[in-house]
Amino acid sequence: MKLKVGIAGYGIVGRRRRQYIDKNLNLETVAVCDQNFNNKEILDGIICYPNYRQLLEEELDVLFVSLPNYLAPEVTIAGLEKGLHVFCEKPPGMNVGDVKKVLSIKQKYPSLKLKYGFNHRYHDSVKDALKILRSKELGEVINLRAIYGKDGFVPFGSGWRAKREFAGGGILLDQGIHMVDLIQLFCGDFLEVQSNVSNDFWGCDVEDNVFAIMRNPEGRIAMLHSTATQWQHLFSLSIFFTDGYLRLNGILTGSKSYGQERLIIGRRTNLSTGSDREETITYLEDNSWRDEINEFVDCIVNSRPIKSGTIEEALAAMKLVFRIYWADTIWRKKWKIPNPDRI
Q1: What does the mean pLDDT of the chain come to?
Q2: What angle do CA 75, 123, 194 make, to 5 degrees?
């Protein structure tokens, strides 16, 4: 028997999730909700509601949450309390406190699966880079350098992403959290943080540029630039090892605006110029959305623990995002950012 799925939030992301939900033989989308529906109606063979409370009255097994940040924790908690397995998009909320509330509820329902959509972990370039790291063929990680940027908030102006009351943060929380998650995946957590945070260009009450330098307990350093003034979309992550390096350039997305997805592998030599050759792998298909959902379903069907995108990992990513905010004393005071490690 197929698991009955409800989708809370049926915009671009919710609709894309449904494409891959319906391709999984263990799932069936039966209902969705979105504020753009005025009343209960039938569309494309499924029931559509204007709010999530009506959606949760349906007989469901699984809930996908694709809602703005201010609603995500509330609806995730409501799904768990209804006895549903929940898949929630990133970020998991507006602040660290939101995620801790979800965690406290999740602990009451150990048999339910809760997964967060840190989708970049499922891109083939990232998976291959992680295999190389774990194999130790390039030695130990020394440091990382990361840039993730686009040309504004989408949609800009009237969109909720550019408003603190709905988003909780700007480009770092919305998009940069993907890179924060990858930095932690490759290098562990970072407790020592220095940063400069600004909203000087777009003038919203959320940040449009963040520069951060971070050091973990092992002494590894990571540099991060998260930006909404990158006039040509860019994804770039370089990882330097004792015996070589990895460069992840570009990432396949629906818009195709980040260029080709490539993994560049270099090996250290004794030459004065460093590496004398590079191996470049180019990826032509994005199967990350499919693989992410299939793994989630496998964990439900076979009663396995969530492999990636756990509530604990979501909390760690949120804490690092807010350590970055808090490290800038001007930004901290202006927006009354609390110390995330004392919440």
Answers
A1: 95
A2: 75
